[in-house]
Design brief:
Radius of gyration: 45 Å
Number of domains: 2
Helix content: over 70%
Order of helices and strands: HHHHH
Strand content: under 5%
Length: 166
């Protein structure tokens, strides 16, 4: 093992002059070279990316200056679309529709006096009867539609169509 006076240490490595230090310095030399290669490759890639971004920015600026109307209309459309998306995303739930049935469900019937109850029962029976009458009318109308003889109307059209096609 050699004693050094401080000037023989290559790259601040005190173990460089020993046998063990030779192996370490070879490895660290390869690692430093690899790090330099990686650093230069990253630097080149970054420079290329920066150049492409500058070209894209310049082309965009040129297009925007040459075509101001489509740019403004496009920005307006984009803003409208974003505004509508935010509006519908933050919209509260739809309220239940106001119907007679829903209104009657929400009434506190305990506050009604006894003399009003017969009138309320009568109104309720009338509502049920009218609902039943409407239901029966719809069923009767559907039955009448099922009984229509469609062939009676379609047969002359079919004959005329066949005469045209022959």
């Amino acid at each position: 093992m050699k004693n050094s006076n401080g000037d023989n240490f290559p790259k601040d490595d005190p173990m460089a002059e020993t046998e063990f230090g030779q192996e370490v310095s070879e490895r660290s030399g390869r690692m430093e070279e690899g790090a330099r290669k990686f650093s230069s490759a990253a630097s080149d890639t970054w420079e290329q990316t920066r150049q492409k971004a500058m070209v894209a920015r310049e082309r965009t600026e040129f297009f925007l200056r040459e075509n101001p109307v489509p740019t403004i209309l496009g920005a307006l459309a984009l803003g409208l679309a974003i505004g509508l998306a935010i509006r519908y995303a933050s919209r509260p739930a739809e309220p239940t529709p106001v119907t007679l049935r829903n209104a009657l469900k929400n009434i506190d019937w305990r506050g009604m006096s006894d003399p009003a109850m017969p009138y309320l029962r009568k109104a309720r029976r009338g509502y049920e009867d009218s609902a039943e009458a409407v239901s029966q009318a719809v069923k009767d109308g559907f039955d009448r539609v099922k009984d229509i003889d469609v062939d009676r109307y379609v047969k002359p059209l079919r004959k005329r169509w066949n005469s045209w096609m022959s």
